[in-house]
Amino acid sequence: MKAVYSPIYCIPLPERHPFPMEKFPELHRILLEESLLSKEDVVIPEEVDWEDLRLVHTDEYLEKLREGKLSVLEQRRMGLPWSEILIKRSRTAVSGTILATGLALEEGIAAHLAGGTHHAFADRGEGYCVLNDVAVGIRRLQRAGKIERALVIDLDVHQGNGTASIFEEDPSVYTFSVHGERNYPIRKSTSDRDVGLPDQVGDDGYLEALQLHLPEVIEEADPDLICYLAGVDVVEGDRFGRINLTREGLRRRDRYVLETVKQTGIPLTLLLSGGYAKTPTHTADLHATVHREAAEVFANGALQG
Ligand SMILES: [Zn+2]
């Protein structure tokens, strides 16, 4: 499987900042070491044009990002201090998702070893998310006439509030979010389908809910492309998650999504989203789960049968 990655994804943050930047190079290393990825299959993105960002984001917000004019409050809400390198990194990650979605259409499945920054709204950043890469990726493909409809399967433990808000009035993009009901964001946006789960729901309750909804969601969405935000903050011991899947539960979740999507033959893009385990290496190891499962599920190619 082709995977998009850039070393720029890991940028310096203030000391003791909770965001695990090192998870990106660690995931890249683990996938190469486990031969889940070969060097020839790594695609390196450049920064996305500001013009493409206007497909999703407001001019006022983009101007603030470009000129470094975010207020202290806006930066606090974003959870990341503004810097030139942060903006370069964020633009590169959007470009990464654009590349990965395009590759998924060509190859049936492709991955971005970053992205899924689903708390970014059209006019603001939130929760460690600056730009909404998935929204820009989908709108780019729609503008190019390569897809009409898309489905976002967002299984990060936090609701995909930015993505839901961006596409709320857009019937061509179906947003599906399974998340902790009591977790951040306290004020949820409205996805096309939201499944809010109780704290400590555990493996069986989680998988039951997912299996109840996913086949119906795919049928209702009838997409030309699926973006899977496979956040790993659902796993027990996560600093911000609270719904406590085991590692085996995470493996079953990813396996179920991959097998269900493969049966449909719809192109699939894998994206990271969140994960806040004890160490960045541990987090990266959890992010590798979906790649381990994809290697088996898609062993005979992306198309059905
Ligand atoms: Zn999250």
How would you sum up this structure, described in words?
The chain is of the alpha/beta class and 305 residues long. It has helices spanning 23-33, 50-53, 59-67, 72-78, 84-107, 133-143, 161-166, 202-221, 247-264, 280-297; strands at 2-4, 42-43, 109-112, 150-154, 173-180, 193-197, 225-229, 268-271. It has a single domain (2-297), classed as Arginase, Chain A (3-Layer(aba) Sandwich), CATH 3.40.800.20. Strands 2-1-3-8-7-4-5-6 form an eight-stranded parallel sheet, with helices on both faces. It is globular, with a radius of gyration of 17 Å. The model has no long low-confidence stretch (mean pLDDT 97).
Computed Rg: 17 Å
Low-confidence blocks of residues: none
Write down the domain tally. Answer: 1
Strand order of the largest sheet: 2-1-3-8-7-4-5-6
Distance between the termini: 17 Å
Structural class: alpha/beta
Summarize model confidence as the mean pLDDT. Answer: 97
Key attributes of the depicted protein:
single chain; 12% strand; 8-stranded parallel β-sheet; Arginase, Chain A; binds zinc ion; alpha/beta
Explain the layout of strands and helices.
Layout: E1 2-4, H1 23-33, E2 42-43, H2 50-53, H3 59-67, H4 72-78, H5 84-107, E3 109-112, H6 133-143, E4 150-154, H7 161-166, E5 173-180, E6 193-197, H8 202-221, E7 225-229, H9 247-264, E8 268-271, H10 280-297
Parallel strand pairs: 1-2, 1-3, 3-8, 4-5, 4-7, 5-6, 7-8
Zinc ion binds next to loops.
